[in-house]
Specification:
Number of strands: 9
Largest sheet: 7 strands, parallel
Order of helices and strands: EEEHHEHEHEHEHEHHEHHHH
Oligomer: single chain
Distance between the termini: 29 Å
Strand order of the largest sheet: 3-4-5-6-7-8-9
CATH superfamily: NADP-dependent oxidoreductase domain
Number of domains: 1
Radius of gyration: 18 Å
CATH topology: TIM Barrel
Length: 280
């Protein structure tokens, strides 16, 4: 297992963690009290923790905070890095505090290691949002602040708005098929400012499993035998930049164990070039 400091947090996280976004259909069902394969998902997260994965990402939107809370209850809290996100309609000071308290209750914890703005909201004054987040940091309810789905300008503005702290992380759509942040300045800015990048959809919605792409992955398998496409794709992300933490979905024990098995593989420059040549 590869561990690295997550941005400026001072916390060493597993470079491959666990995400808990399942799909919109799953989220929709939860509003009717249907938590499909809940025990399987809890087992998957517990398996990851037991084998050294200490980074877990969830969100208010995902409706998985209770599942994470159930999975982590028997583990030492200080050994885990729990990240969650606030919905964009809850960014006003009062709404944000209420949203955080709901998340803490569901997670059954007194603090979150990373509190992220899930999407920007042009109708809310970010200065007030970040002022509230910094107040909650002073109260010990938040350890670090992050943003998700922000443009480069918004990331820079956010960092400048913060008065006592700096951004710890940025979460973006980033995978071998979607590498915009490598070209639009976001990755460069994050690297230069010690900001961690958490790629969501690290497997491109399962696109890596398509047979068409095997010709690229088979080149890698000449050197690393039997490694699945998905794990080559994850290794690519954490190999290319040392501030990246991939968060593939932890939906079942088998997939988590597979990710653990190949979690310490770093691709060399020639292998990275092979993956770079993939055209989506």
């Amino acid at each position: 297992m590869i561990y690295r400091y997550l941005g400026n947090s001072g916390f060493k996280c597993s470079a491959i963690g666990m995400g808990t976004y399942y799909d919109m259909n799953w989220i929709f069902k939860t509003y009717f009290g249907i938590y499909s394969k809940k025990d399987t998902k809890i087992e998957a997260i517990k398996t990851g923790i037991e084998n050294g994965m200490n980074l877990i990402d969830t969100a208010e939107l995902y409706n998985t905070e209770k599942i994470v809370g159930e999975a982590i209850k028997d583990f030492k809290r200080d050994d885990l890095f729990i990240a969650t996100k606030v919905f964009p309609t809850h960014l006003s000071p009062r709404s944000l505090e209420k949203a955080l308290n709901r998340s803490l209750k569901k997670l059954n914890t007194g603090y979150v290691d990373l509190y992220q703005i899930h999407f920007p909201n042009p109708f809310v004054d970010l200065k007030k949002t970040f002022k509230t987040m910094e107040k909650l940091m002073d109260e010990g309810k938040i350890k670090n602040i992050g943003v998700s789905n922000f443009s480069l300008k918004m990331i820079k503005d956010s960092n400048n708005i913060l008065s006592k702290h700096r951004l710890t992380s940025v979460q973006m759509n980033y995978n071998i098929f979607h590498r915009n942040i490598e070209n639009n300045g976001i990755m460069k800015y994050c690297r230069e400012n010690n900001i961690a990048v958490l790629p969501y959809f690290p497997l491109g919605h399962g696109k890596v499993a398509k047979d068409y792409y095997n010709k690229y992955f088979d080149e890698i398998r000449k050197d690393i035998k039997d490694i699945p496409n998905a794990n080559i794709a994850l290794s690519y992300l954490i190999s290319k930049n040392d501030n990246v933490f991939a968060i593939p979905r932890a939906s079942n024990k088998e997939h988590v164990l597979q990710n653990i098995k190949y979690s310490d593989i770093i691709l060399n420059d020639s292998q990275l070039k092979i993956i770079d040549s993939i055209k989506s």
